[in-house]
Design goal:
InterPro entries: Catalase, Catalase_clade1/3, Catalase_core, Catalase_sf. Heme binds at residue 378. The chain is an alpha+beta fold. Among the domains are: 97-396, Catalase HpII,  Chain A, domain 1 (Beta Barrel); 464-522, no CATH class. Helix content is 33%, strand content 14%. The protein has a nine-stranded antiparallel sheet. Helix 6 runs parallel beside helix 12 and helix 13 crosses helix 15 (501-522). The two termini are 33 Å apart.
């Protein structure tokens, strides 16, 4: 009888399975909701036999621990021990994110500026992996928080990996690498209350380090919350030194310009989205790529010559300010296209290591002091998160690698097998080359700590285009100030008066209104729902009906 029941169940199950591929034909589901069904349709049968970590097959009786010898159940030991070790340290910044694969295609000849192979040869395509991220949110945070967003691009070039790291704002927070810890501490979590983004500490630090203000203006404006990773521009921030085959140098700022069009969310729209969907950006990107609406960006560079930088009346290497119009010319390079979602987020995104130090011949890189600090900081954080062999993790591996590095914490891959492990040697180990195109002269940049408020004045009066944008900017600044202690607010207002009198006057008025609104809100009690009676902690035994069944 049991065999017959089992056969009937199997037949029913097969009928249900065979109908899965047609079940949703007349229903619209987002690709993120279809992911498991898509996997099943792609794999009409089981992908194989379940094994333990060591490769031996799993007996079905070992899949439960009831009435079994738990100490000898290796599947249980595998499960518990690996679950405890699933997580690696999250990134200190840009912890929450997602990624995709794609390619970069050269669309214009830029050989007069750089001999980097990745940017030479019209129509040449280079595979890439990218990671999008929020800057201050933890792994479980909100995508639509008001903060800079990030884009990291890894180009798998024939000359090694080229990593370009970008922000959604065209200016950086600071230019002194010593400031990085203070900014992260001041703008993240209060050490006692554990409240994220304590506005008092953030504004306090900003007024004591006014160089932070320019980036803060961008973040508090309409540019602070773009409508998805696909609909924002990205900027590598630094002024890069590049060189052509004759050893001539140029100084450039790269820009990734979205071809989907820039779109923004107001604070009200962002709050409404955040209430129902913390993964709004991630969901939008996944759905677009899976639906064949491949996002793309134009890569351009603003160019100055060595002669140009000697004539400008501003520091072109200052990452906290924009270049002035008329001091450079813009050159198109190519197009970045994302056409494939990652297969496994941990393998392809969380283990991906991006470093500004990953450069290629023809792009010596920025010369400012912040960049020098970042080269050290990124290497250190990747050694901490992923181990010293992080470049041997599959997603980080270059197309070609021959090295004298050996051993260490896995992965070590083939570990260079039996090749010589020292240099120089006379046994045909890897040899270096001479790059005759490399520039002979090196530019030294002198920096200072002076604060220039002119870029902030320009932002308020010219970057912000109309009165509606200006009102939203003032509101975004003033409302959080109601949570800040008065001495810090007064210091901020003094700084704003140095920038623009109209700006300071309007923010002061808006701040006073916000203060009154906050005080009124504290007088209104927060409603709560009362549960009738005590919360049950036991299950009552139902009373049986003792009525006798009438006899027939």
């Amino acid at each position: 009888m049991k065999a017959i029941v089992a056969c009937i169940f199997c037949v029913i199950l097969r009928i249900v399975e065979s109908d899965d591929s047609k079940r949703f034909d007349n229903v619209t589901y987002q690709p993120v909701h279809r992911q498991l069904l898509d996997f099943k349709i792609k794999n009409p049968h089981s992908i194989g036999l379940w094994t333990k970590n060591a490769g031996d097959p799993v007996d079905i009786r070992d899949t439960v621990t009831i009435n079994s010898d738990q100490f000898s159940n290796q599947l249980l030991i595998d499960t518990i021990s690996t679950l405890d070790g699933e997580r690696i340290p999250e990134r200190v910044v840009h912890a929450k994110g997602t990624g995709a694969f794609g390619y970069f295609e050269v669309t214009h000849d830029v050989s007069k500026y750089t001999y980097a192979d990745v940017f030479n040869g019209v129509s040449k395509k280079t595979p890439v992996v990218v990671r999008f991220s929020t800057s201050l949110q933890p792994v479980g945070g909100s995508d639509v928080s008001r903060e800079p967003k990030g884009l990291a691009v890894k180009f798998y070039t024939e000359e090694g990996n080229l990593d370009i790291l970008c922000l959604s704002t065209p200016v950086f927070q600071f230019r002194d690498p010593m400031t990085v810890r203070e900014v992260l501490h001041g703008f993240k979590v209060n050490p006692q209350s554990n409240i994220r983004l304590d506005f008092t500490s953030a504004v306090d630090l900003l007024t004591l380090r006014p160089s932070l203000a320019h980036n803060a203006f961008w973040v508090m404006s309409d540019f602070g919350v773009p409508d998805g990773y696909r609909r924002m521009d990205y900027f590598p921030i630094h002024t890069f030194e590049i060189a052509n085959k004759y050893g001539e140098t140029h100084y450039v700022r790269f820009h990734f310009r979205t071809e989907q069009g820039v779109a923004i969310l107001t604070s009200v729209q962002a709050a409404a989205i955040q209430a129902v969907d913390l993964d709004y950006y991630n969901r939008d990107l996944y759905n677009a790529i899976d639906s064949g609406k491949y996002p793309s960006w134009r890569l351009e560079m603003d160019v100055m010559t060595r002669h140009d930088i000697q004539k400008v009346d501003f520091d072109p290497f200052d990452v906290t300010r924009l270049w002035k119009n008329g001091t450079f010319h813009t050159v198109p390079i190519g197009k970045l296209v994302l056409n494939k979602n990652v297969e496994n987020l941990f393998k392809d995104v969380e283990q991906a290591a991006y470093s500004p130090a990953n450069l290629v011949p023809g792009i010596p890189g920025p010369v400012d002091f912040l960049f020098r600090g970042r080269r050290t900081f990124y290497r250190d954080t990747q050694n901490y998160r992923l181990g010293r062999n992080h470049n041997k993790i599959l997603v980080n591996m270059p197309l070609y690698e021959k090295t004298y590095v050996r051993d260490g914490t896995p992965p070590t891959r083939l570990n260079m097998r039996n090749a010589p492990n020292y240099y120089p040697n006379s046994f045909h180990g890897p040899v270096p080359y001479v790059d005759e195109r490399r520039p002979l002269k090196k530019l030294e940049v002198l920096e200072n700590n002076a604060v220039d408020v002119e870029p902030l004045w320009y932002f308020y009066n010219h970057i912000i285009k109309d009165e509606d944008q200006r009102l939203r900017f003032i509101t975004n600044v003033a409302v959080p100030l109601a949570q800040v202690t008065p001495p810090v607010v007064q210091r901020l207002l003094k700084l704003l008066f140095l920038i623009d009198e109209d700006l300071a006057t309007r923010i002061r008025a808006a701040y006073e209104v916000a203060l009154v609104a906050q005080q009124a809100a504290t007088l209104v009690p927060t409603p709560s729902i009362e549960y009738p009676g005590n919360i049950p902690t036991t299950q009552e035994v139902p009373k049986h009906n003792t009525t006798e069944i009438p006899k027939s």
